[in-house]
Design goal:
With 332 residues, this protein is α+β, with helices and mostly antiparallel strands. It contains five helices and eleven strands. The chain has a domain at 47-78 and 88-132 and 199-331. It starts with a helix and ends with a helix.
């Protein structure tokens, strides 16, 4: 057989794929890509839900910690062994008069579970609100006193405790007023520590700073200024905190241990508050598609059970907080 016959008489060893084979390969490839896309989307959604849940829990725990730090320190007045007499019936949260502040120091905390303090008009209706007052734990140098703030100075000198001066043995005054009480050595050159006087309230606002409708735990600091009663210094603390509720531990026999718990203590019981039970609802910042919140109910103390008709996940946090310093003064 000639070479030419051999060359053209046999089919070529190289050949392409048919159209059917190509379509099968493309279909299989699309199925694999689709499966991988589905897995990726599901994983991404699961990761977003985990992130939202983690943020929600972290916000709730952080809010509880803030309230614990503040409420536990309510009624701290440096070295004072006792406070106002006769007993006060209110802390006058919205007052800008430092004389009123001084006369109501024995009410370390005051709150409402429905209604608002009149000086906090942005608080969410139907949520709890807590007011605390105390001295700062940091000492303020005399040269750093500010005219628009109030300060506490407690004498450590025994001679000053028997003085006829009306504002001894302690003072709650503006930064422009004299602070000349003495230390334990009764040396006029050694002044007792000066601490900023703190009065603040914690409440729920329906909007955060951006005003986007996210419920937010906020803090209002009150100052002895003409506008502070209606325009306090408000700071956003934790987003996603949707509700607050309080129950007060009341010491009726003066030993520092609560005998009665009340969510609405009478005016004459405020000076006997030695602890607070706190409930709060932490809500996710973003909604979860397909989630029905109406299937869940939330109980905050004796408050009527709460339900929500939306797609936000929520969690209830609760704790008991002892007022360390009022308890300590009573336990002596």
């Amino acid at each position: 057989m000639s070479p030419r016959v051999q060359e053209f008489g046999h089919p070529s060893a190289e050949s392409g794929i048919s159209l059917i084979e190509l379509m099968i390969a493309m279909t299989l490839g699309l199925l694999v890509i689709g499966a991988m896309t589905t897995v990726f989307i599901n994983n991404s959604q699961a990761r977003r839900e985990l992130d939202k849940a983690a943020q929600q829990l972290e916000n709730g725990r952080y809010a509880i910690q803030i309230l614990r730090d503040e409420i536990s320190m309510a009624g701290y007045y440096d070295a004072m062994a006792s406070v106002a007499s006769p007993p006060s019936t209110t802390a006058s949260p919205c007052s800008t008069d430092v004389t009123v502040w001084k006369s109501s120091m024995d009410v370390a905390t005051e709150g409402v579970n429905s209604g608002n303090f009149p000086c906090l008009t942005t608080a969410q209706a139907g949520t709890g609100m807590m007011f605390v007052q105390r001295a700062s734990t940091a000492i303020t140098a005399p040269a750093s006193l500010k005219a628009n703030l109030a300060y506490l100075q407690v004498s450590l000198c025994g001679d000053e405790y028997v003085s006829a001066v009306a504002d001894k043995p302690f003072r709650v005054k503006l930064g422009t007023d004299p602070f000349d009480l003495q230390k334990i050595d009764c040396n006029a050159a050694n002044r007792a520590p000066i601490r900023q006087y703190v009065r603040r309230a914690f409440f729920i606002d329906r909007n955060n700073i951006a005003g986007d409708g996210i419920p937010t735990l906020k803090r209002a600091d009150f100052r002895p200024e003409a506008l502070s009663a209606t325009n306090p210094d408000v700071q956003a603390l934790v987003e996603g905190i949707e509700d607050l509720h309080f129950e007060y531990a009341i010491d009726t026999n003066g030993d520092g241990t609560p005998e009665v718990f009340s969510e609405a203590p009478a005016a004459n019981q405020l000076v006997n508050i030695v602890g607070v039970r706190v409930w709060l609802v932490a809500r996710a910042i973003d909604a979860t598609p397909g989630y029905d919140a109406s299937t869940k109910t939330f109980q905050l103390g004796s408050k009527a059970a709460i339900t929500f008709n939306d797609s936000f996940k929520r969690h209830v946090f609760s704790t008991y907080i002892e007022l360390i310093h009022p308890v300590g003064r009573r336990s002596k």
